Predict the 3D structure of the following.
Amino acid sequence: MTTAAEVDRFRMPLPGPDTPVVSKDRVVALHAHLNTHYSASKWPLAPLVDNPAQSLRVIRWKKCPVTLREEIRLLTWTMINGELRPTFVKQRRTRRSRFGPDTIWRAVEEWLRIARWLDERGISSLAQCDARVLHEYGLRLRDSGVSRGRVLNLLACVTRLWAFDQLSAQPVGVARPPWDEVGVDDYLPAEGGSGGENSREPLATATMGPLLIWAMRLVDDFADDILAVWQESRRLAERARTAVASVESKATLDAYLAPIVGDGALVPANWNQGVLRFARSYVGGVTGASLRQVDTAIKRYGLTAKAAERPGPCPLDLPVTGLIAGSPWRGSLDFNEAGTLFRHLGTAAFIVLSYLTGMRPEEVLGMRSGCCPDPEPDEDGIVGRHLIRSVHYKTATDDNGNYLPGGTERDVPWVAITPAVNAIRVLERMVPPGRLLFDHDAHDLVSGWRPSTRGALRPGGMRQRIEDFVAWSNTEAQAQGLENEVIPPDPHGAIGTARFRRTLAWHIARRPGGLVALAIQYGHMRTALNTEVSGGYGTRSRGGIHDMLALETALATAETAADLHDRFENGEGVSGPAARRALVESATSRRFEGREVKTDFARKYAAARRYLARDGAVLYDNPHALLLCLYKHDRALCQRDGPVDDAPTLDRCVPGCGNALRTDEQAALLRGRAEDIDKRAALHPKPMGDRLRANANKLRAFADEHDETRFTRQESPA
């Protein structure tokens, strides 16, 4: 005979005061030691976390009214350890029957808010939370002024309150929310814009350019010096800490201090708790004197006061190899800069990897040493691209659709171009083998290792590191006389960690053939992303950088078409084989209004892909060649070598291509560029000057051809 308990395997048992908050089958090893018991006043969700870069959430029961606390506590425990019924998951087309720690925490936070709202209304039990009460709460959320997507998420949290009550050992009888029965539209604010990744503004070019210059400069040019300073400073600090007093060490110390005491030389000093003090560890390490001997000398000679009066550097006996504009970036490397430079080097590597791979922040922070091995040559001796094999978290689920706290390794690896590989190699020198590249223990020099911060640096901490890196870079730019490399504030606010991914897609789509921070060609990055190896990532739902590239490219081409139409209507002339076709397309295609063609266009990647698949109807701007391309693959001269692509290769534009057209503005820019080249030619030796002048004359010829063949709205094309 089958019992009801055997049939209903989803109903949870009743926990006791000493029952673990996270059941044994859900605990992950990384934070298992933080698991607590059911009656505790705080419930850390860290035992559910296996992502080393994920924030460690805590549920604090003092935030819940006493009258409702035990009911909410039981439902929370049920959600942490239970599993939604398959019928619930299927009917609502949700992806998961079990939730990750962040989703659980957000749901409980909403449960605590509704509990406080119920308590204010004099409702002391969830059993009194009927459809009428939930209807009022739904309207309250709708009118709260938050975004439509936010309200939708909050309503889903309340629905889970009802769903998990049915799985509880002691159901209280929470009513089914009315929006789950009759539909959610009446409980949502009016449709606004898109949300998610695409609502983040890309970083301004004026900000991203110098930011990447400084990040790559630290990784490529200064890393050897910074790591040498770090190692030497650690060696001197350890030598000072372990030195044993001797007659010889005292004599060395006295000889070192003689110029300072007798001749008034600068005093090696550092800042300690906001006060300039004598650099005792540095001096102890350099001289081999014990710290007690150094402290005695400080008191005897009044070195603390002298350090405040005439503070000096703490130079290290190391060569300076890094250069800026052909000159050493430092006169000498300093003991006091070791920690600051080491911290900024890690931040610079994060910026390079975030921008030049298209990874999400948690994916960058989850990388491990050895994740990007050097490729082996194939049978023909051809060496392939560097591939990053690491873990992704956002869509990581098991076969049943349940969230995997530790993520899962990407079936298709990321493609890494040379600057990204260089950043990984630098990070591998900063952490022990096999450890996380952004290991907290190795990178966090302020707080040091604590059990609650085990794993990688957190995105929140990295955001502050980036702001500190910008401040340091700007100070350095001023000191080096590089005013044109100062990083200006972004007009849309803080740089953060999540905007690099969007910025990469924006620049590849809108600056084709140009240079990334004067160093990396965007066209090369697009080529890397379009390889067979990386292309599979684009097949995922909301599949990452490829979808974002399609979206940004579609938006850019829509803008280009609208701009051409407006220019032509306002009397500007156009020329070129594709001019007439382009004008027809720009007049009849979707109009771009504001930032998006339509509200749903920016949210649906499939719409972007369909928009770009219209062969012969998509207009691309090539600011590098100063022309427009109405791409039709069978006319494209840029596709003559190799397989035909579904988009132009704008860094290989060929004069005379049947897809090309040019506007009056672009012709004027051609002449301006020719004048600039002539000025440069005058400063070069004759052979090089002749080549530059020939190039300038070619640009003028293109502009002259435009003037001869152009037509306007009032004229008929020849």
